[in-house]
Specification:
By secondary structure, the chain is an alpha+beta fold. Helix content is 28%, strand content 34%. It has one domain (2-136): Gcn5-related N-acetyltransferase (GNAT) (Aminopeptidase). It is built from 4 helices and 7 strands, in the order E-H-H-E-E-E-H-E-H-E-E.
C-alpha cells in the first residue's frame, strides 16, 4: 500500500467517483487539515486528519481494506496532532460505531438523527444515530 497526501480537490474527486451507496457515510464537504489517499495500484481508500484531533473522511470501498486504512488514519492523525494525544471521530450508524470500537475507539456520546445535517448524497430512508468516539494514545 502507498499512502499519499493530496489536496482537498483531488481527495473529493476520488470520493465523487464512488457509487453513491459507497460514499453516503462520508460528507462530500469534509474539511480537514490533511487529506490522504491509499493506493494499491488504484485508490483503495482514504482518510483525513486535523491538527485539533478531529478526524473523519474515512472510506474504503474495497472489501477487506477498511481495518488497515482505519489503523493508518490513527497513525497519521497522531503524527499530525499539534497538541494532546486524544483523537475524536464522529460516525453515522451502529455499523460504523461497532467498526470503530473494534479498532480501539471508545464511545463518548450519541445524537439523534437530524435530516438537516445528513450528507447531501444520503440515499436511504434510514435515520441512524450519530456517534462521537475517542481514541486515547
Amino acid at each position: 500500500m502507498k499512502i499519499i497526501e493530496v489536496d482537498s480537490k483531488y481527495y473529493h474527486s476520488v470520493l465523487e467517483e464512488l457509487p453513491p451507496e459507497e460514499r453516503q457515510y462520508v460528507d462530500k464537504k469534509v474539511i480537514a487539515d490533511k487529506y490522504y489517499l491509499v493506493f494499491q495500484g488504484r485508490a483503495i481508500g482514504g482518510f483525513t486528519t486535523a491538527f485539533d484531533g478531529n478526524i473523519g473522511g474515512l472510506f474504503s470501498p474495497t472489501p477487506g481494506n477498511g481495518r488497515k486504512i482505519a489503523e493508518l488514519q490513527i497513525q497519521y492523525a497522531l503524527q499530525d496532532l499539534t497538541y494532546g494525544n486524544v483523537l475524536r471521530i464522529m460516525c453515522i450508524g451502529d455499523r460504523l460505531k461497532k467498526f470503530h470500537e473494534s479498532n480501539g475507539w471508545t464511545f463518548c456520546s450519541a445524537y439523534p438523527w437530524d435530516p438537516e445535517l445528513a450528507p447531501e448524497h444520503w440515499i436511504t430512508d434510514d435515520t441512524p444515530n450519530v456517534y462521537v468516539l475517542r481514541w486515547y494514545k
